[in-house]
UniProtKB/TrEMBL annotation:
<keyword id="KW-1015">Disulfide bond</keyword>
<feature type="signal peptide">
    <location>
        <begin position="1"/>
        <end position="22"/>
    </location>
</feature>
<dbReference type="InterPro" id="IPR036312">
    <property type="entry name" value="Bifun_inhib/LTP/seed_sf"/>
</dbReference>
<feature type="domain" description="Bifunctional inhibitor/plant lipid transfer protein/seed storage helical">
    <location>
        <begin position="44"/>
        <end position="136"/>
    </location>
</feature>
<dbReference type="InterPro" id="IPR016140">
    <property type="entry name" value="Bifunc_inhib/LTP/seed_store"/>
</dbReference>
<keyword id="KW-0732">Signal</keyword>
<dbReference type="Pfam" id="PF00234">
    <property type="entry name" value="Tryp_alpha_amyl"/>
</dbReference>
<protein>
    <recommendedName>
        <fullName>Bifunctional inhibitor/plant lipid transfer protein/seed storage helical domain-containing protein</fullName>
    </recommendedName>
</protein>
<dbReference type="InterPro" id="IPR000617">
    <property type="entry name" value="Napin/2SS/CON"/>
</dbReference>
<comment type="similarity">
    <text>Belongs to the 2S seed storage albumins family.</text>
</comment>
<dbReference type="GO" id="GO:0045735">
    <property type="term" value="F:nutrient reservoir activity"/>
</dbReference>
Amino acid sequence: MAKFTPLAVVLIALLFIAHTTAYRTIVTSVEIDEGIDNRKSGSCREQLQQQQYLNECERFLRQQSQSQSQRDTVSGRQQLEQCCDQLREVSKSCRCDGLSEIVSEQLGHLQGEDRREVMQIARNLPNECNLKPGRCDSEMRSN
């Protein structure tokens, strides 16, 4: 019996070490995964400023307000892609705010049906660019 006691103590110590190592590995991997989601840094204002306040999206929306048929032209698709490039560089939590700002401030001169159409296009821009959120609803109001 005396021979089994040291062996049992060593076995229990090894089990404890193995359990502690496995737990530490899990905690470490969770911390690494959480850090991946924060790749966009800075406030929305800073991000929008770095992307020239989504000037390409504003240009695209202005073009759409002037002629709906322009969207299917080569220049219309190029402007859409340039807008998408800017939206990709802004965190998803800031995209709709930036688009809403464009609609309310820069395109504020539009009235009635023209304004509704531009707002509808702006709401769907993230979806057109295959970005999340797919649609900006609550962020945009028709003032």
